[in-house]
Sequence to fold (227 residues):
Amino acid sequence: MPAGPSANLELFGSLDAPGGAAPGAQTRMGRQAWILRGLALPVTDALLRGVDEVLRQAPLRHMLTPGGRRMSVALTNCGALGWTSDEHGYRYTRTDPLSGNPWPAMPAAFAELARLAAQRAGFAGFEPDACLLNRYEPGSRLSLHQDRNERDMDAPIVSVSLGMAAVFLFGGHARTDPAQRHPLFHGDVAVWGGVDRLRYHGVLPVKDRPHPVLGSRRINFTLRKAG
Ligand SMILES: O=C(O)CCC(=O)C(=O)O
Ligand SMILES: [Mn+2]
Fold:
């Protein structure tokens, strides 16, 4: 069974915690779902250089949902496969529909961090081939959803948070199941897989608490094995 609230001291923790949660701490969200606090902190410079490089080649854009609504989060991709949404549905593509070019290469620092995080969470041998990069501004949100367009459900999702803090919702296997709420801070890495791979999750509207490096932005990227 997923760990209950008593196992998550930070469950009701404040987003205003100046330095975030203690680096090295681990928040258990489920049997095979963790937040590895501060795991990305030693490599944020390389990660942010990687983000700039990706955005230069494949700019952020607001995609349409299959229902025709504009997503409040702006997104792009890197890696062999990139996630796309439009009025025809969700899917992975090898090329960026905006440019027709292959998605930018996945920065080595992204893949290295993903392997480390996955291994720490019990998923040794993770080799991501897709990375979806989201940019949140104040008020941006991501409604509850499952990540289920990937072919390989044995591989976990690794999710890296940079910039402004946000509240992550981690629900159950049905959209209506109650959702845990966990603050995610600059440098935190969440991993969910195995029995928790298809849990609903999302992000509450982000409050404007500017981050010293990224200002009023939150960057999240998720590494996946999609092909
Ligand atoms: O921004 C986050 O923390 C979660 C992102 C996410 O769930 C997704 O990109 O599918
Ligand atoms: Mn997701």
Summary: Confidence is low (pLDDT under 50) at residues 1-12.
